[in-house]
């Protein structure tokens, strides 16, 4: 097991630590929850452990499908070993069903099945409130090259296909999700950050019950139970 070094970065839901290996870092998942660009703050009991397990399951699945990810190993209840990358300042959002900001932006009722998959890019910038950006904005801001953007969109669409099929077997709808990518020391684009109920919308396929962070954002209650239910359906609940 690599030795944990000093903290490199603390985000809203995770801390990143250096290790004794120059190209590997440790992600520590926190129970802290934020929404609306940090305006709403709280804690979800056990979230760090649950998201670490859920994200591990998704990263392993995607690696097995040939998607390059930063995932190396799950080290402990809250800790994951990952490849060190330079995160691209972009959030890639993939949507199958209208919800959240898309429902507002295009005026479609939440729950409307989208006739085509929608892919969006947002500029990761807290001061600007993470605005939606076009490929032309991304080019002028030099957030990614047009070639990198094509790779991101293509990976995001492939990831959607794999996750949707996997979740459908668990009677879950993948409404939408957010991805972040990074560049490793060899210049490879890797899927990074996390995939969890913090970053995805999951609905029960029969009841359309929300089993994700919208329960926290919208004060719907039973937040911990929803995360635990996702972990249980993914087969990761050992207790
Ligand atoms: O809020 P919006 O509808 O744009 O969110 C789309 C998807 O992206 C949701 O699954 C949400 O959880 C995720 N997201 C995220 N981090 C953000 C913004 C959105 O994980 N900063």
Automatic annotation (TrEMBL):
Q: Name one GO biological process term.
A: cobalamin biosynthetic process
What Gene Ontology terms describe what this protein does at the molecular function level? Answer: ATP binding; phosphoribosylaminoimidazolesuccinocarboxamide synthase activity
The pathway it acts in is:
Purine metabolism; IMP biosynthesis via de novo pathway; 5-amino-1-(5-phospho-D-ribosyl)imidazole-4-carboxamide from 5-amino-1-(5-phospho-D-ribosyl)imidazole-4-carboxylate: step 1/2
Family matches, as InterPro entries: SAICAR_synt/ADE2_N, SAICAR_synt_PurC, SAICAR_synth, SAICAR_synthetase, SAICAR_synthetase_CS
State the UniProt keywords alphabetically.
ATP-binding, Ligase, Nucleotide-binding, Purine biosynthesis
- Residue span(s) of domain SAICAR synthetase/ADE2 N-terminal: 8-233
Q: Give the top-level enzyme category.
A: ligase
Q: What is the top-level taxon of the source organism?
A: Bacteria
List the Pfam families. SAICAR_synt (PF01259)
Q: Which SUPFAM superfamilies match?
A: SAICAR synthase-like
Q: Which reaction does it catalyse?
A: 5-amino-1-(5-phospho-D-ribosyl)imidazole-4-carboxylate + L-aspartate + ATP = (2S)-2-[5-amino-1-(5-phospho-beta-D-ribosyl)imidazole-4-carboxamido]succinate + ADP + phosphate + 2 H(+)
UniProt xrefs under HAMAP family = SAICAR_synth
| Family, similarity comment | Belongs to the SAICAR synthetase family.
Name listed for the protein in its UniProt record = Phosphoribosylaminoimidazole-succinocarboxamide synthase
What gene codes for this chain?
purC
């Amino acid at each position: 097991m690599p030795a944990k070094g000093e903290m490199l970065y603390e985000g809203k839901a995770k801390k990143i630590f250096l290790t004794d290996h120059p190209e590997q870092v440790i992600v520590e998942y926190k129970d802290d929850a934020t929404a609306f660009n940090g305006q709403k703050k709280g804690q979800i009991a056990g979230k760090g452990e649950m998201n670490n397990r859920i994200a591990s399951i998704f990263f392993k699945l995607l690696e097995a499908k040939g998607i390059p990810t930063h995932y190396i190993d799950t080290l402990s209840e809250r800790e994951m070993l990952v490849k060190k990358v330079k995160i691209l300042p972009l959030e890639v959002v993939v949507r199958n069903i209208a919800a959240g900001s898309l429902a507002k932006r295009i005026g479609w009722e939440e729950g409307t099945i989208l006739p085509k998959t929608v892919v969006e890019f947002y500029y990761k910038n807290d001061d600007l409130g993470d605005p939606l950006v076009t490929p032309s904005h991304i080019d002028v801001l030099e957030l990614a090259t047009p070639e990198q953007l094509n790779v991101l969109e293509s990976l995001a669409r492939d990831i959607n296909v794999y996750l949707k099929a996997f979740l459908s077997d668990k009677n879950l709808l993948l409404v939408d999700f957010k991805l972040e990518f990074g560049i490793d020391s060899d210049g490879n684009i890797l899927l990074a950050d996390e995939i969890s109920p913090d970053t995805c919308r999951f609905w029960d396929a029969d009841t359309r019950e929300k089993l994700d962070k919208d329960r926290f954002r919208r004060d719907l209650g039973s937040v911990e139970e929803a995360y635990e239910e996702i972990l249980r359906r993914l087969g990761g609940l050992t207790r």
